[in-house]
Amino acid sequence: MDFWIRTFGTGLEAFVVLIAVLYAASLVVLFTTGMAMTLLNSRHPGRKIQKRQPTHDAIRDIRSSTIQLMITSTCLAIGLYAQMRGWTLFPPVALSWWSVPLFFVVSLILHDTWFYWGHRILHTRLFYRFHKPHHMTVTPTVWSNDAGSSVDTLFAHSYYALVLFVLPIPPLVFLGHRLFDQVSAAIGHCGYEHFASRSARKPWPLLCTLYHDQHHQYFVYNYANYFSFWDRFCGTIHPTYDDRVESFEELYAGKRDQA
Ligand SMILES: [Zn+2]
Ligand SMILES: [Zn+2]
């Protein structure tokens, strides 16, 4: 962040420019990932997860995403700006061979925990009205991830505004986590399974697109974001998930026509 401070200082304008740059970057990621996955899907029609077609057009989701990504960018900027100003408990750890993988994985695990429990709260009677707009999509598309209400977005992404206050994550690792989050979440909504593998099913904790697709289909399963351990531990993983991942692996190997 030294470069940032030299260029923009630490005043309010530095904070505003930070939001603008993060927002512009998030739009680039939204459209690049969206177009790349749309192309990949068109080349592999047999990998479609649900038989039903999406019932809404992409424009509605894109319009909503452009608003929600502004909120996410502000959350990221709050965390980075606070770290830059020294308002956090610890200064960021320097980049090194051990700090990059360690803080990346720790941040993913913490965010997954934040996301899982926040998501469970959003499914309660009191909070569901904030999450309902996202669930209007039963058959998600690559544009659906950020579409929803602002309270919904804050539940998932306030993590980025808060975590740097207590954890000295290097800023580049923090941004790398957010990039991974945005890309993997877009792929997680793309409606086609391209990434089924052994590591995405029992006993491994990783996921593939089917995971969140089943959340949209069946509603009360698969609440987590990056890993399956919270859902497995709490008994909220969909009973067919592991078998269907294996079916997609067989589809790739040419042993089946349809997973
Ligand atoms: Zn949900
Ligand atoms: Zn979703």
Question: Any chance you could write out the topology, listing elements then pairs?
Answer:
Elements: H1 2-8, H2 12-43, H3 58-85, H4 99-122, H5 128-135, H6 150-166, H7 171-188, H8 209-218, H9 229-234, H10 241-252
The structure holds zinc ion (2 copies).
One zinc ion (ZN) binds at residues 134, 140, 189, 212, 216.
Features:
10 helices; mainly alpha; 259 residues; single chain
Structural class: mainly alpha
Largest sheet: none
| Tally of alpha and pi helices | 10
Flag low-confidence runs: none
How far apart lie the N and C ends?
A: 47 Å
Please state roughly what percent of the residues sit in beta strands, choosing from under 5%, 5-15%, 15-25%, 25-35%, 35-45% or over 45%.
Answer: under 5%
Outline: globular
What is the string of SSEs from the N terminus onward? HHHHHHHHHH
Mean pLDDT: 94
Describe it.
With 259 residues, this protein is mainly α. The protein has a domain at 2-179. The chain is 63% helix and 0% strand. It contains 10 helices and no strands. It has helices at 2-8, 12-43, 58-85, 99-122, 128-135, 150-166, 171-188, 209-218, 229-234, 241-252. Bound molecules: zinc ion (ZN) (2 copies). One zinc ion (ZN) binds next to helix 5.
